[in-house]
């Protein structure tokens, strides 16, 4: 039972760029408020590391409730709500922020504002949050808090006259931060008498208790045993377990407006209790759900095929299990003439795709061949029908379609001035449309471009990082569909078109990409006993052609018989290399070949 009144509650999150010190500061706040003892924190940290290593995933703190005795003599409850750190999950970030009244904006005083920080600050401002700027790492000799403050004021237009100088590592400024949270973040409004409305900001699947839902009570009261309704999914459940996160789960009997907690109610999959949905009471439902709910929509699609076709059912089981914990993951069976049976999967973005792929391989021990990511194209067919195509091999032929449009993104980059030239060149190569450039303090610049999403989801991020030696940061958001003269480029191996290699490209780039792809495939596909021709074609027109010469020598011949261990090693190496191959007709094609489009040098 918690009996804290709304005036004594403060709900806040921390906005920070990667490595600017969010986790260190969160730990400090937990320690300083006595929520977690130092000894426990060390142990927990180690346990989490162990788990992370074992499961290959990052365990994150979703929320923590702290008790804080403020200088005004009153006891407060401070709820820290975590936000995911990547653009792919910006919808989740926006829901986490919607559950707060304030945010700490943590900026590394030796670095400055980065693009991702900016995106999240704008989200926080949209939700009318009180933002408290914190300049972290002031213990570093290179810290320049004045410059960074100027930068924050200039870029965000945020008053930084009362910014806090802190070092999460050394424990400097922590009391000031806690006091600022109490004094500057507004308390939640006291709507305890209204019908229950609670906002889901996170959830995960637990194999014993079902889905654990993290929520913020916006109005009313929720009790253990209540029958609740989820307003978007329209499903009803009885609450088996209700609690707070301190930061470990601790059961309570009820939670009121303004409080943050978790519940378990034998919910089978996270898709049934989605982030952004509103929890209300079945007996006395609220008239209206909380605003802002949308269903996460996959942006990037790819084919996933088991290298060994007998593994198809195992792949299906694994995807089903992952989906219990990932409402945004979509999949449906796909049959490819080249690859056999597999699944067409949809993801929020490239990082999401990589996480799922990694989990399938690590946790479910599957060997997969994954095709290059594709965005969703909007095609108007000859009979005026509008269809969405997420698989290039399914694009209607030119004489069957009226028009084709592709999604565009606005990309914001922040970079030291010296890399502006090379980043502009990158954007131009990727069909970018220049929108804006602004000079900030100390030779840093913001660059804004509009780019086709297809050009962003390939290797844009990696290219940006390598061209700026790691200094630039970026953020993107979708701005709608635009028509373009796009064509389907087919690739043929040994005379047969390989549907999983088909791609949709701009007409003006088709020749360059076709040639580069043929060359890249020649480089990536191993030699066989026979000559393997490779061709790129648009419709029936071949635009590039290469061939892989036949293998002549036995690889073992080099070993002159004698050295058996060396021979073994060579065979092992070959076996390892073979693992991620897919037989396309009589040709073994390695995984890298399907991702070849990501490896082109970008100058096409
Ligand atoms: N010198 C100094 N180092 C700090 C300070 N705060 C954090 N760090 C260091 O900065 C690095 C990143 O800190 P984290 O707290 O992991 O940063 P984060 O923002 O949570 O990073 P992600 O979890 O990757 O998003 C770590 O090596 C910290 O030890 C500080 O005040 N001073």
Automatic annotation (TrEMBL):
Keyword Kinase belongs to the record: no
Pfam annotation, one family: LepA_C
CDD domains: EF4_II, EF4_III, LepA, lepA_C
Tr-type G domain residues: 7-189
Sample GO molecular function, one term: GTPase activity
Catalytic activity: GTP + H2O = GDP + phosphate + H(+)
EC number annotated for this UniProt entry: 3.6.5.n1
Swiss-Prot/TrEMBL keywords: Cell inner membrane, Cell membrane, Elongation factor, GTP-binding, Hydrolase, Membrane, Nucleotide-binding, Protein biosynthesis
Any GO BP annotation: positive regulation of translation
InterPro entries tied to this protein: EF-4, EFG_III/V, EFG_V-like, EFTu-like_2, G_TR_CS, GUFP, LepA_C_sf, LepA_CTD
NCBIfam families: lepA, small_GTP
Function: Required for accurate and efficient protein synthesis under certain stress conditions. May act as a fidelity factor of the translation reaction, by catalyzing a one-codon backward translocation of tRNAs on improperly translocated ribosomes. Back-translocation proceeds from a post-translocation (POST) complex to a pre-translocation (PRE) complex, thus giving elongation factor G a second chance to translocate the tRNAs correctly. Binds to ribosomes in a GTP-dependent manner.
Family to which this protein belongs: Belongs to the TRAFAC class translation factor GTPase superfamily. Classic translation factor GTPase family. LepA subfamily. Belongs to the GTP-binding elongation factor family. LepA subfamily.
Name listed for the protein in its UniProt record: elongation factor 4
Organism for this UniProt entry: Scytonema millei VB511283
């Amino acid at each position: 039972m918690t009996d804290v009144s709304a005036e004594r509650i403060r709900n806040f999150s921390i906005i920070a760029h990667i490595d600017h010190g969010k986790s260190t500061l969160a730990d400090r706040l937990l320690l300083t408020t006595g929520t977690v003892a130092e000894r426990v924190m060390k142990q927990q940290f180690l346990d989490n590391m162990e788990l992370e290593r074992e499961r290959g995933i990052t365990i994150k703190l979703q929320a923590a409730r702290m008790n804080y005795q403020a200088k005004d003599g009153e006891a407060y409850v401070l709820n820290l709500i975590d936000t995911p750190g990547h653009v792919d999950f910006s919808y989740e970030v926006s829901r986490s922020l919607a559950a707060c009244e304030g945010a700490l904006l943590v900026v590394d005083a030796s670095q400055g504002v980065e693009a991702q920080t900016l995106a999240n600050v704008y989200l926080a401002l949209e939700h009318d949050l009180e933002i408290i700027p914190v300049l972290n790492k002031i213990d570093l000799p290179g810290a320049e808090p004045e410059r960074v403050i100027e930068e924050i004021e200039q870029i965000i237009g945020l008053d930084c006259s009362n910014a806090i100088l802190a070092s999460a590592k050394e424990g400097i400024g922590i009391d000031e931060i806690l006091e600022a949270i109490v004094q500057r973040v507004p308390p939640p409004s006291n709507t305890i008498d209204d019908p229950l409305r609670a906002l889901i900001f996170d959830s995960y699947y637990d194999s014993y208790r079902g889905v654990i839902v993290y929520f913020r009570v916006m109005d009313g009261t929720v009790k253990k045993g209540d029958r609740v309704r989820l307003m978007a999914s329209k499903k009803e459940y009885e609450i088996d377990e209700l609690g707070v996160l301190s930061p470990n789960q601790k059961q309570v009997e009820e939670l009121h407006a303004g409080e943050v907690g978790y519940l378990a109610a034998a919910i089978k999959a996270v898709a049934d209790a989605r982030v952004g949905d509103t929890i209300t009471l079945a007996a006395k439902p609220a008239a209206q759900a909380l605003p802002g709910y949308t269903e996460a929509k996959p942006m990037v699609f790819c084919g996933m095929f088991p290298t060994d076709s007998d593994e198809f059912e195992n792949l299906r089981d694994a995807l089903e299990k992952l989906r219990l914990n990932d409402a945004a993951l979509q999949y449906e069976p796909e049959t490819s003439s080249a690859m056999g049976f597999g699944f067409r999967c949809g993801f929020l973005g490239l990082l999401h795709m990589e996480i799922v792929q990694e989990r399938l391989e690590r946790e479910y021990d599957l060997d997969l061949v994954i095709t290059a990511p594709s965005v969703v194209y909007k095609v108007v067919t000859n009979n005026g029908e509008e269809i969405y195509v997420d698989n290039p091999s399914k694009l209607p032929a030119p004489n069957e379609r009226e028009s084709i449009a592709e999604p565009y993104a606005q990309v914001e980059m922040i970079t030291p001035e010296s890399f502006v030239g090379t980043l502009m060149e990158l954007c131009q190569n990727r069909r970018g449309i220049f929108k804006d450039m602004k000079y900030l303090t100390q030779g840093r610049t913001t660059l804004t471009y509009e780019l086709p999403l297809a050009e962003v989801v390939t290797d844009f991020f990696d290219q940006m990082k390598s061209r700026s030696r790691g200094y630039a940061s970026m953020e993107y958001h979708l701005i709608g569909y635009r028509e373009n003269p796009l064509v389907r480029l087919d690739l043929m191996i040994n005379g047969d078109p390989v549907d999983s290699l088909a791609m949709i490209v701009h007409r003006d780039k088709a020749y360059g990409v076709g040639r580069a792809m043929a060359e890249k495939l020649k480089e990536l596909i191993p030699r066989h006993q026979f000559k393997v021709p490779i061709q790129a074609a648009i419709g029936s027109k071949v635009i590039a052609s290469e061939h892989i010469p036949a293998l002549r020598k036995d690889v073992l011949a080099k070993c002159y018989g004698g050295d058996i261990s060396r021979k073994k090693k060579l065979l092992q190496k070959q076996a390892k290399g073979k693992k991620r191959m897919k037989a396309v007709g009589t040709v073994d094609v390695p995984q890298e070949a399907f991702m070849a489009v990501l490896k082109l040098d970008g100058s096409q």
